[in-house]
Amino acid sequence: MNIVEEFKKFALRGNMVDLAIGFTVGAAFMSVVKSLVDDIIMPPIGFL
Fold first, then answer.
1. What is the DSSP-derived secondary structure letter of residue 32?
2. Structurally, how many domains does the chain consist of?
3. Which keywords does UniProt give here (predicted)?
């Protein structure tokens, strides 16, 4: 299935539990990306 269609179904359903799970997963993903950028990507760039 298409991600956009799945998101429309999720958004139109309006289930608060799904919203809380999505928020939690999004926050965890954001922290992983921030750590990746700060610890892996930026040091070589700063070195150059």
1. H
2. 1
3. Membrane, Transmembrane, Transmembrane helix
Question: Three-state SS string across 6-44, please?
Answer: HHHHHHHHCCHHHHHHHHHHHHHHHHHHHHHHHHHHHHH
CA dist 1 and 42 (Å) reads: 36
| Structural domain harbouring 20 | 3-46
Q: Are 22 and 10 in contact (CB under 8 A)?
A: yes
Contacts of 22 (CB under 8 A, 6+ apart): 10
